[in-house]
Amino acid sequence: MNPVIKIEGLGKTFNLRHTHSLKETVVWLFKGRKEDLSKKFRALDGVDLEVREGETVALLGFNGSGKSTLLKLISGVILPDGGTVRTRGRVAGLIEVGAGFHPDLSGRENVYLNAAILGMSEAEIDEKFDEIVAFSEIEQFIDTEVKFYSSGMFLRLAFAVAVHTQPDIFLVDEILAVGDEPFQRKCLERIRKLSDEGRTLVVVSHDLDMVARICTRGVVLEHGKVAFDGPAPDAVDWLRSR
Ligand SMILES: Nc1ncnc2c1ncn2[C@@H]1O[C@H](COP(=O)(O)OP(=O)(O)OP(=O)(O)O)[C@@H](O)[C@H]1O
After folding, report:
1. What is the CATH number of the domain that holds 156?
2. Which of 17, 93, 132, 236 is the most exposed place for a label (fewest CB within 10 A)?
């Protein structure tokens, strides 16, 4: 089967310091702007990864290992400074709660905005609108501006929109954690349904037991590199033994 995500030599460096004292800047100017003033951090360093259609992949690793950065690069919200990411089909997911939502618009308007960003036509959204709102269970607040939403309400609406776009590749970051337990269970059931339908999943989580249940493959990142790639239970054991 052809890969739906193909990542080659992927690298991402962040600037860790953006502000400098006047003294630092003057010294730097007098020294002829030789070295780079800002400190750099290599969050991803030469990652190669292929994900095939229908695979369920957990991205695992300790804090700061580069999981969220990799997910953001796959979704296209940030760009790499080296290497390539290619995806096939509609990509949707939950990476940052509230991303793609406008605070001054109501929940209803944001459903249209967010679903359009994720590639749905107006007619498709009209058709799915009631289902999306029913899934989110926030009918009562659908005409309230989302700046008044709690993080859980944001998550509910964002998750509901994302799953109803029928994505080919569904990306989920840790953020499910802000939902209450019944809603988390509902999301997990929905994620499992997407996987049963043969859609591709990439999930970032520290809940190792949960990912071992929903994912078949585990990719462990360490200092921005792939350190382990294999069956999810083995990846979990490998990480726990570190
Ligand atoms: N926008 C940014 N600017 C500067 N540094 C960043 C930025 N985004 C990420 N980083 C750094 O890159 C590294 C990897 O971050 P990332 O969020 O990908 O890690 P993670 O594996 O998802 O961690 P966690 O488990 O804590 O969520 C971290 O050291 C982080 O500080």
Report:
1. 3.40.50.300
2. 17
